[in-house]
Amino acid sequence: MASSRVIGLDIGSSCVRAAELEFGSGGPTGKAGATLVRFGQSALPLGVVRDGEVTQPETVSAVLRELWARARFESKDVVIGVGNQRVIVRELDLPWMPLAQLKSSLPYQVQELLPMSTDDALLDFFPTSEYDGPQGRAVHGMLVAAQRDTVNANVSAVEGAGLRPQMVDLNAFALVRSLARGDLAQATAAFVDIGASITTVVVAAQGSPRMVRSLPTGGHSVTNALASNLGISAAEAEALKREVGIGYAVGSDRTDAAEAIAGVARGLVESVRNTFTYYTANNQGAGIDVVVLTGGGCHLPGLGQYLSSASRLPVVLGDPLSGVRSAKTAQRDSLNGHESLIALSVGLAYGVAA
Asked: Which CATH architecture has domain 183-221+261-319?
């Protein structure tokens, strides 16, 4: 098998990011590993993507066209991701059958499990294990059900830029693919991606997803709270939150800012911690070993320490480029200290192995 290149495209609420990876013989699962060939990102105007769903396709298309021209991506084939509270992910046991047949049978097998008609949903199934049950051979895995219009809106924006979506992947699965390597591939790890408006939490055991949850809070939630409470602009609030952080001593002139930041951060950390507690309670003897943070929101000073203290777990910053070579065209130095920002786009590129 010759080398191949894949572009993972992450459409966030505040930014679009694309990573082009080259895979040697054997593809993403081969021994040759991956090489980062190019990376590019462009900011999005406020409100054109809300809660992970494109609301103004024309604007997003224009930003994507500019990004492709500036970053000089050679292909227009992309893998895109979805992930918000309108995408349902849950564990499910089904009678064993060949995977293609199992996926085609999903509309008939899961209708009563979903709060939506299967006619309005895009369904997928990610098998994680097989076993012999009372009714015979069975398969355990993760059911994914996405509102069709949510996916169509994102696809429309991508196609409007002249790009060709080759696959739509779940952001949570992309996180695992980009980060569950090396020691993390052998651990039970909680990957927490804090985006602008959505935080994705996925617990994976030995590299296999076991639980996924989307929380409607992100970095912009902190910025908005600061701007509202202090009567300042969003740009001023964004800069201020980076200076104040959470858990640090501040002067009397910044007490109101610290309280506004802490109020949102406490709520987010509590929701993340409750997710961990739920997983541990439903998987006796399979506690979480480590928490891995990614996304722009995870760079709020003090947040990692705060989450570690609240969860009583070690917290590290994720590096999706660990073990990934970089071509000269990648301008790798520009990503130093910010590798965690491209976890989703790198993981989506790895999705061709799914």
From this structure: 2-Layer Sandwich (3.30)
